[in-house]
Amino acid sequence: xxxxxxxxxxxxxxxxxxxxxxxxxxxxxxxxxxxxxxxxxxxxxxxxxxxxxxxxxxxxxxxxxxxxxxxxxxxxxxxxxxxxxxxxxxxxxxxxxxxxxxxxxxxxxxxxxxxxxxxxxxxxxxxxxxxxxxxxxxxxxxxxxxxxxxxxxxxxxxxxxxxxxxxxxxxxxxxxxxxxxxxxxxxxxxxxxxxxxxxxxxxxxxxxxxxxxxxxxxxxxxxxxxxxxxxxxxxxxxxxxxxxxxxxxxxxxxxxxxxxxxxxxxxxxxxxxxxxxxxxxxxxxxxxxxxxxxxxxxxxxxxxxxxxxxxxxxxxxxxxxxxxxxxxxxxxxxxxxxxxxxxxxxxxxxxxxx
Amino acid sequence: xxxxxxxxxxxxxxxxxxxxxxxxxxxxxxxxxxxxxxxxxxxxxxxxxxxxxxxxxxxxxxxxxxxxxxxxxxxxxxxxxxxxxxxxxxxxxxxxxxxxxxxxxxxxxxxxxxxxxxxxxxxxxxxxxxxxxxxxxxxxxxxxxxxxxxxxxxxxxxxxxxxxxxxxxxxxxxxxxxxxxxxxxxxxxxxxxxxxxxxxxxxxxxxxxxxxxxxxxxxxxxxxxxxxxxxxxxxxxxxxxxxxxxxxxxxxxxxxxxxxxxxxxxxxxxxxxxxxxxxxxxxxxxxxxxxxxxxxxxxxxxxxxxxxxxxxxxxxxxxxxxxxxxxxxxxxxxxxxxxxxxxxxxxxxxxxxx
Amino acid sequence: xxxxxxxxxxxxxxxxxxxxxxxxxxxxxxxxxxxxxxxxxxxxxxxxxxxxxxxxxxxxxxxxxxxxxxxxxxxxxxxxxxxxxxxxxxxxxxxxxxxxxxxxxxxxxxxxxxxxxxxxxxxxxxxxxxxxxxxxxxxxxxxxxxxxxxxxxxxxxxxxxxxxxxxxxxxxxxxxxxxxxxxxxxxxxxxxxxxxxxxxxxxxxxxxxxxxxxxxxxxxxxxxxxxxxxxxxxxxxxxxxxxxxxxxxxxxxxxxxxxxxxxxxxxxxxxxxxxxxxxxxxxxxxxxxxxxxxxxxxxxxxxxxxxxxxxxxxxxxxxxxxxxxxxxxxxxxxxxxxxxxxxxxxxxxxxxxx
Amino acid sequence: xxxxxxxxxxxxxxxxxxxxxxxxxxxxxxxxxxxxxxxxxxxxxxxxxxxxxxxxxxxxxxxxxxxxxxxxxxxxxxxxxxxxxxxxxxxxxxxxxxxxxxxxxxxxxxxxxxxxxxxxxxxxxxxxxxxxxxxxxxxxxxxxxxxxxxxxxxxxxxxxxxxxxxxxxxxxxxxxxxxxxxxxxxxxxxxxxxxxxxxxxxxxxxxxxxxxxxxxxxxxxxxxxxxxxxxxxxxxxxxxxxxxxxxxxxxxxxxxxxxxxxxxxxxxxxxxxxxxxxxxxxxxxxxxxxxxxxxxxxxxxxxxxxxxxxxxxxxxxxxxxxxxxxxxxxxxxxxxxxxxxxxxxxxxxxxxxx
Amino acid sequence: xxxxxxxxxxxxxxxxxxxxxxxxxxxxxxxxxxxxxxxxxxxxxxxxxxxxxxxxxxxxxxxxxxxxxxxxxxxxxxxxxxxxxxxxxxxxxxxxxxxxxxxxxxxxxxxxxxxxxxxxxxxxxxxxxxxxxxxxxxxxxxxxxxxxxxxxxxxxxxxxxxxxxxxxxxxxxxxxxxxxxxxxxxxxxxxxxxxxxxxxxxxxxxxxxxxxxxxxxxxxxxxxxxxxxxxxxxxxxxxxxxxxxxxxxxxxxxxxxxxxxxxxxxxxxxxxxxxxxxxxxxxxxxxxxxxxxxxxxxxxxxxxxxxxxxxxxxxxxxxxxxxxxxxxxxxxxxxxxxxxxxxxxxxxxxxxxx
Lengths: 354, 354, 354, 354, 354
Known about the structure:
The structure is a homopentamer. Chain A is an alpha+beta fold. Chain A has 2 domains: 278 residues, Beta Polymerase, domain 2 (2-Layer Sandwich); 37 residues, no CATH class. Chain A has 8 helices and 7 strands. Chain A has a 7-stranded mixed β-sheet with strand order 2-1-3-7-6-5-4. The two termini of chain A are 51 Å apart. Chains in contact: A-B, A-C, B-D, C-E, D-E. Chains A, B, C, D, E: Mediates influx of magnesium ions. Chains A, B, C, D, E: This is Magnesium transport protein CorA. Chains A, B, C, D, E: GO terms for molecular function: cobalt ion binding; cobalt ion transmembrane transporter activity; magnesium ion binding; magnesium ion transmembrane transporter activity. Chains A, B, C, D, E: Its main location: membrane. Chains A, B, C, D, E: It is found in: Cell membrane; Membrane.
């Protein structure tokens, strides 16, 4: 399966703005979850009808529409038209190969992020797109919202006295991004566990299999880095307070997420160094182990070489070989051979070869 | 054959602006394909006469002249003179060693790009030059237009209701570049297939041949990178809306191609890392396999060393060797030798050398 | 134990500004040490009550409140409220995974630094946060103040005629940072001792253990670098004289610390090169030693090969082998064998293999 | 011979502006070649007298004075004084260790370039300095003008109808630099030939000698890169049209040379990658070949080990060894040994070791 | 001995501006050398009394005070006070761990440089500090002025007609820096000699000792680079003409030193590449030589393996072995064995293993 270039070529030759889903096909229906709140009012709704969302445009309440699933092209066509989103942006939302980025328009801003988590011990990267406009945020996820990184945020919104009830679109934007970035730390902890696991394995045993696993880890790190690195620039843009739709006072919150992002990037770089170290250690250990075997066996055989020579000597059939006639010849030879072995062992030990 | 420096030195000493074809010689005639359209009118024409193109200068219709083949110097001389293109630019068009670039002049802009495709499993890089002026774009290809990356674009132009019929030079410029960039993804998918193929081959077998192929892949990646990297800057220039001839409203489309280009560059970098990983894996596997053989054979021979010593001992001709007289001596010796072999195998297994 | 990602995920899902201690849990009570001075007046106090500090806000005297321990959340809640520190900053103070940074606010500046020292031969990194406001600095340490890097500074403050008694918040900020940076040199000296120790060990012996220790050193260096590198930017900010709260005339002092920081960074980079060199030397020595053994043993066995062949020849049972009947055959064979050995040794010596 | 630092220290302690020739001493007389032209007038002259050049200062005609040889200090002293060139610049002209650079003065600009060519298969770097002033360019070469890179340019000047006859100092400056840069392509083609030669050699044979040659090539590449890299900045300066003496309309020509220079740099970088690849391939091939030998020989000897053991067994002198008495014992043993050999060969083939 | 961190920690905890000598202790008395000149007047003086220098402050003559030795703290205290130099600067002068830098103050500029020379074949780095004020320059050296790099400059000053007699502080600053930079070339030549020496040694012999020496050279290169690199920025500052105390017209001289510095840096980088190449060559040669030995010995032993087998065969004691009875059996066996040896040698030669 093509992982990095998954089917992008399918779009080739279509006119720009043609909606095509590019990504893993799940076959699930696209679900919509709506949270509409202001001060102590909260309306929450689950639906499959995009039409149910139309009324939340241009209201005074803050609304968060969470769309799960990217495969219902018709739904996206309607959504784009009703909320006035450029067709190229709609195209980007459906294409899960996007690089994290931010784009500003007159009426809304468009943000693409990557949500990262482990699923069955495999690193999964899911694309999250956000359209933030006056009093309304629409988020798009590849998979179901069940168990996603926003659950804590929903709980905070449901709390009638939560500070978030009084905030506007900038704060919700922040809260969404913060949820994603906070989750990176969970992934990093798992990765550190893995690295440490490999470090311990390397102490015990060295197998080619391990080499492949560490290499795999290295590649995951590169992938992760590519997903997180552009985030820095995105949050920086938001923090500078130049985006109209974002209220100025959340700037300090974005500064905070910015610091976290830098921390994530720093940690990934540290891990990359560590994984590179693992590979070096692997290679050094493997050659070390091999050398140890070769050394043992070579020394072993070397001890026998002069002995074999000696027994060869007394296997010769010369008529005149005085030692052969001597009664204690055989016993003396054994003693000589034992002495030679002992002397050689001592010599090897002295040379620190043993 | 010189690949990177193909005959550039032929031009040495000529005065600047001298038209010389530098590139692979095909001997084919230069074909011209003209598409002239406006709203619901479309005139299409194939010709070998450059004179047929003269009338499309300074008209109200949008015209796309596609010149295939760079070897007819006379044709190019006429073309340059009639359309008022600087002789240095004409020289650049004929020199297929150009680096991708954009140059702005008062009346036109000049763009050089690289079209990349696989032909008989070999990566081919073909230079595309574009002259974009008021209501007219002239494109230059090295080879025939049959099967080129613009076929989908032509179909869209032929559609009488296509949006493209209503657009100007900026949009067509975009559509041409977009066709080229979209095609990069096809190449990337093929490359990923290759990388994965090599990964699987490495699991099964390790040959020096494989090493050379992976090295070749690595070089292709460098070459690709060099062809795509400058594109970023070109599209950036177009997108900033500073080029007069390009209408402002296509800026968002160029932003889109820009994102794709960055994606292509990112993917190439990822692939370079992966190919570097392949080489490391190759080297590790090769040394691993060698070590495995050496280990087996060394252990094998080591087991026989003490046995050979023993049979040597009882081949000696000492007059007094009591074991030789003993009736069961021979049988006991076999048992001793079997025990030694067994013990050594156990020892090697315990040491995890086997 | 997770070292780099120590429990950050614990904070996931909490609303921003929630105070959570992230770091090593010691269970010790949070101690507060207050120094309040102006000209020849000095009041010093140890307390566990944050309320005791309230009165030092907005006085004419210069006050330094040193808080040791980050685990008493309630204390920090009160402190933040009374001194008007943003909840996100309070959160940062309690999170020991911070990257060194500086943040300016209207009434105060917030600085995070890393204090580095060796404890039981292990490199320890302790986070120091500083809140600097008009006539007041509050510093936060992870551990007890006993034996920290500020002891010399306290002595200088206690000296009634010390220049520091006449200075304001900027100078004390400088003095605190200077104490931390000066201490880096102590760490660097220890590290250089270690590097030199390894260099000497490498001359004498080569063990896989050594490899791991050097690798560990390499990782410490990376870690150190990450802790010191951002300091450059922080001090640069302070030195430019753009921070309101810092009086202009301490700018030259910050320039001095800046130079020291650059020196520390330079030295770390030098050490990283040296450690990389150690690893290369290790690998070269290890392969060298192995080669030496293999060479010795191979040459040794090679000398015996023709001798063993010869004794084999005269162990054959052919009826007609004239040498066997010859009286001095056996003696001559010994002489032949000695000559062969001698000749081979000479040959090897000539070839410089011995 | 010191190649990179050739005698610079000889100048140590002299006062600045002291004229000292630093470079390879040839002992040849300094030749001067003068071309003075305007429209259809051309005067050409060869001389050894610097005084002959004096009259070309401040005329209406365009003059190109080409000075070959840097060893006649007296000549240079006079030249500097008459044409009003700063003594530090005169010093730079005579010092062939200059890095390519451009310096602007009120009345003239000073340019240093490196001319590169192969002589007897050795890469030679020759320094070219240029003083460009109103209607006059003086160029300085290390060696004779015979066979230099400017011959084509001279031919173009000699052509009475050549466009160059109507141009000013800016165009001649361009034409000189263009001649030098065009020549780089010739060198690059030769280098590519060499690289390809090595690639083919590596297929056939692997010798330590080859390693040294490839290393040498690598160093030449570094040297080349150092000579060409600064050129980019120089031409950029000329192209920006900020240099007074250079007429604005040649800017497009400099843009063209700039593109060529970038192309040269790109190609050198590509070649460096290729040479690095050659070294890797060399190392891989060498270890491959060694492994192949070791494998063959080890397998060969391994097959004989059990056979030798068996013949040893039947060489023992036990009184009771029934096989020895059996008539067909000897024949059966041979069959057994042949079977063992066959079986082992099959096993090795199955394991893909053979 | 700690080389890079030599005793800096001794200063920890002292108040800023405390004068402490940090560097190699020599125990020599601090010598002062004064040159006071204007046009044709020159007064020169050697003294140990700092008070003798006081009168040269604020005179019309140009004065150069050269202080040799950094260990007389009292002297430095007086000097700093009399000439009004900031205590932090005095501290920097005594600390020989400074990084090259320039600092501007109202009345003077402070420059730190590194003087580099070989002493007994060891690279020595000596710190030179300069205080440049109106008509006065004070330089500080670690060691005696005998044999330092300024001797030629002194000679030029002593020449009553020297141009330098008419210049001001800027020119002397230039002359001092120029003397230091010129001396770098001497060091570079020595280093190149060393590199070439190693290159030749590598052709002849490969020892682990050589490896260590080359590594040492590599480290020296890094050290050198660190000492020279910041110089670029310093001279750039001086050359831009923004420093008040430096007269504008020496700008061109500083441009000249700047070029030299860039040249030095370029050469060091080249040398670093060359040393890296030496290490690669060393490793390749070492493994090559080892392989050669192993190959020879393995082939040697392989030839004897079948021979030993054969003599083993005819050492067996089977009752029925017809060959043994045959009269020419023994002679034929010898011929067979010679043929086998010959055939194997031919085979190895054909395979190019020999």
